[in-house]
Structures are given as structure tokens and as C-alpha cells.
Amino acid sequence: MNTAHPTSILIRELTDLIRKGHAHVSLEEAVAGMTLEQIVLTSADLPYNTWQLVEHLRIAQWDILEFCTNPLHKSPEWPSGYWVAASDRPDEQQWHNSLWQIKADRESFLQVLHAPDTELYQPITHGTGQNILREALLIGDHNAYHIGQIIILRRLLGIWE
């Protein structure tokens, strides 16, 4: 019989969802082995390349983290502040920095989620009704959606096994 508190079970499930989930790959798995040339390849069937999708994930997750932790935070302008141009070409350092920042911000959000004083259901004081539970679900859902797009793009380009 499982005697864990329901909130601790929920936090564990949210953590799994944000880190990887049980039915989809992680971002790290989705981009593993990609070259700089491959991350900027496009397909006529999708409007974004992998670099744009990864940067969008980074910016959106950072924005959610900042919203949850900084009452003075101002979100970027939508949509221009959340997407880099298709013509943008990162160098190796920018690519690795983006992936590192996604992981670091993910872990920072999980620290908030696991903090003993975090109230999952309590509205965030500077928000408009959002709570940490909603923001955790938003990160998990949003990331899974765009990671799925990366996999689809790689399949369309013939660079997914």
C-alpha cells in the first residue's frame, strides 16, 4: 500500500513530466547528435527549424520561471520576443548555451516546485490567477509539444532513427 502524501505523489509526477515524461523523449534525446548544419535545416512541411524550436523552448521556460519567482518580471513581447528568425545561425557555443540554459531553468523551476513552502494551488500573488501547479503543467505540456515538433522535423529531414 502506498502511504505517500498525495501532494508528494503529484510533485513527483510533475517532476517526471517536466524532466522527460513517460510517453515521450526528453529534449536532450530529441537533439542528440545533431550538427550545427542540421539544427538550421527546414522542411516545407513545418514552419520552424530545430534551432528556432529550441530557442523558443528556452525563452518560454525562462519566462515561466521568472514569472513564478520574480514579481517584477515583464514577459517578452508576443510573438516576436519568443522566436528567433529563421535566418538566425548559432555557433557551437550558442547552441550549447541554449541547451544548458534550458536544463538549468528546468532544475530551478523544479526547486520551486519541491520547496517546502510552495503552495501548488495558491494563486501567484502578482499573477491573474495562475498557480505553481498550472505553471508546472504548462512547462510540461509546452515542452512536450515542441519536442514532438523537433522529432517530426528530424523524421521529415531523414535524420531521426
| Average pLDDT for all residues | 95
Taking the alpha carbons of the first and last residues, their distance comes to 40 Å
The biggest beta sheet reads: none
Low-confidence blocks of residues = none
Helix residue percentage = 55-70%
Specify the number of helices: 6
The share of residues in extended strands comes to under 5%
Which geometry do the CA atoms define?
globular
Radius of gyration: 17 Å
Features:
161 residues, mainly alpha, 57% helix, 0% strand, globular
Structure description:
With 161 residues, the protein is mostly helical. 57% of the residues lie in helices and 0% in strands. It is built from 6 helices and no strands. The protein has helices at residues 6-19, 27-31, 36-39, 50-69, 92-114, 132-157. α4 runs antiparallel to α6 (132-157).
Please summarize what this structure is.
This protein has 161 residues and is an all-alpha fold. The protein is 57% helix and 0% strand.
List the helices and strands and how they pair.
Layout (H helix, E strand, L loop, with lengths): L5 H14 L7 H5 L4 H4 L10 H20 L22 H23 L17 H26 L4
Helix pairs in contact: 1-5, 1-6, 4-5, 4-6
